[in-house]
Amino acid sequence: MGAGAAGALVAIQLCETAARRRVPFELLLIDPAPEAGRGIAYSTLDPRHRLNVPAGKMSCYPDDPGHFVRWLCHHGEPGVRSGDFAERYRYGAYLADTLGRAIMAAQGVVAVRRLRTRATGCHWTTLPGGDPRARLELADGRTVEAHRVVLATGPSRATAAWAPESLRGNDRFIADPWAPGALDAALQDGRKEDVLLVGTGLTSVDIAMTLDRPGRTVHTVSRGGRLPQAHAVDPLPAATCATPLHGLSLAALRAAVRQHIGRVMRTHGDWRPAVDGLRPVTAEIWASMSTAERAEFVERDGSLWNTHRHRMPPATAEAVGRMRRTRRMRTYQGRLGSAATRPDGSLTVSLTTADGPRTLPVGWVVDCTGPGLRLSDTADPLWRSLLDQGAALPGPLGMGVATDHGRLRGADGGTTRPLWTLGAPRRGELWETTAIPEIRAQAATIAEAVLDPWTAPAPPATGGPARRRTRRPTDTSGFPVSTHAAAATAYRLGVDRLLKVRTGAAQALRRSVALDPGFALGHAALALIGHECGADVDVSRALADARRAVRERAGTFERSFVDVVSRRVLHPPADGDAALLRHLEAYPGDALALAVAVPTIAFSGLRDLDGTTALRVVERTAPAHGGSWFHTSLLAFMRQEQGRYDEAGALAERALAAEPASGHAMHALAHVHYESGDHQAGRERLQRWLAHQGRGGSHRAHFSWHAALHELALEDTAAVRRRWAEQLSPGKVYGVRALVDSGSLLWRARLAGAWQGPLPIGDVLDTAPADVLERPATAFVALHSAIALTAADDLPGLRRLRVHALRADEVQRSVIAPLCTAFEDILEERWTDAARGLERLLPRLPGVGGSAAQREVVEEALLYALVSAGRCEAARERLEERLDRRASPHDRRRLTALSS
Fold it and tell me: Where is this region: Disordered (predicted)?
């Protein structure tokens, strides 16, 4: 009951949890509003009304904090950051859209009905079997029955008890400024009468901005006379209080909090981190207070706390500041005493203020005091029916109702009815319970409680036949998976395409989780390929889904794999590598995990500096794979990394004979030809494979890139230009692959003097998302972002990437950040500094992952810088060393030119 923000958040959790668990039920959403999700708070159309919490803290999901920010980025605001304050209307659209998606994803499991009316009563009966049943009375005269009820009614409506009798019935008194059309008369063209807002909180601020116009003064009055404080433009992290606050008397608590704020002020020069640091323990402190202390706090400290805790967005604070400086907004500490109607229908109001009596002529008085605190005084018929029949019990100080983790306590103190509430009705117990971060956590808890009785395992049978055990389906490597046969089949197809480096992997994996939203491995594999392969996947969302699902039903193998993916996405590279090694130690036959360990085409691999760890893993897992074409392909790749090219070539040919479409085997063979200097044969073999077995490959651009490297070595510049146009230009390649393959080829072509005229690198940058360019998730992608930005002469972009790298994982800090500095030196023609920086970096480059051929682009930049700095002898030595390893007509010509 109630489909505003709180109701939408519960409905989202119910739909998604039920879909994961495959628990069918009917969900009724009872609310008169035209659209679910908005409620009163997020229905405003005024763009000046903004959230008073940064977007990064407003996700629907407690375990996916970036969800709202990503939604904004995909819905017309690509540059939004987590610290921005979005329009409130946009958040309402986000809630409605997320709910709609959850309902669609649960189709076939959850049947959803919207009843556009209001619930006016809820009466409970007990069926013969002891099952409680609710009969809900609706405002349109209908009744419906329900087994579980969630009261998501939001805050109580204001009662205007403060207003004198002469004002309450007056047409110029606006009791609910959020009611549709309530402010229309005051907003009519030509109306400039002053307005009095009673209340100085966030509601008052929003209404003041809406009513602001030249020639009008908006007066505001409250007992405290305080406007909300402003959020910092550049906020500091929350500062935890060093003193334990639980169990202190109210006087001692005041002193401890003042000391905490003082310490933070001395350290940071700002009180906000101190107040933010109290948020995690606010409910605990409130619960430890006695009833008398709570009452004293509300009376003496509540207003001061609210003005500092619930703050204005910076843009709102700036607008309010302008209004106050120009006297279009005036604030008083006091109360309204009386109101009289003037001959023209306007009002004369008298205020009792701290500066003495004041009389104001105003056109309207608006109640901005906010919701009522005492639910026990409510006139709402739904809550009244529950309180009167003893199904609900007033909470502390009469605020809200008494609950046990959201489940309502009846007059007898018990929780026998399946009846829950969240948000504002829990104010008396929690104090801080009206913001989205608290409500979304309560929604998840309630969804679990509602569905748990329907998903609990059946008790063991006593006597009778034993239950027949069904065999679980398996993944590609033969490990049992916790899903049904159809989802497992789609998953195996997706993994098979990943192992063969063929297209369609993401589509098959998406189908697996569409068939079973609770399939943890499907979600985890999607997160993995989004994070490491650049697939079009919402990585954070997929990972959150995997972690939810694995908690509900999964074996040890599945839990281990999800842990691997979690650590590779969320933790430093060393943690991800350690988790992967542990997993492969326990499950050496897991082909997908083994593919992740080897830095070939799709994955960045184990990021040790010399590649020995990946080699040991491949060799150690050989018995578990029994000479399969896939394992042989990976072994071929590792052998060529060792420089054992003859052996690597033989292994690659053996794998291709068993599986001609093996992209990993062909990739290993491409490296063998390149590192052996057999450029003509390498180009021809790649051409044949791309034309036949490789036509369905998911990384055709990378094989084309390999062919182009042969053409650069052969100095066939016309072939390089042709290959770019036909196989590597944007439109043929997208996203991360455009950076890794197309962007790096253009930069190498420029360094080699093989590209005359303007470099079309701008097209490559246009196809890569901004967050990939300037906030890449992995060091491997960051390397290629730096290359592309350098090729584009984008000095500001390089500097932004360097700032990101300094805040990222250790590899990005130690390799990518100094690499950006060296590339900046190249763009500003500080050749000696550039060469010195690149020389220092070369030994550390293997830590970014990828192949030696991919990382060679940095050595090419070093050669260019050495020659430009006049250090030709150092350049000659590097070229001679490379020519000793492999033949290259281009390197031979460069060496001859340097020696002449």
Answer: 454-481
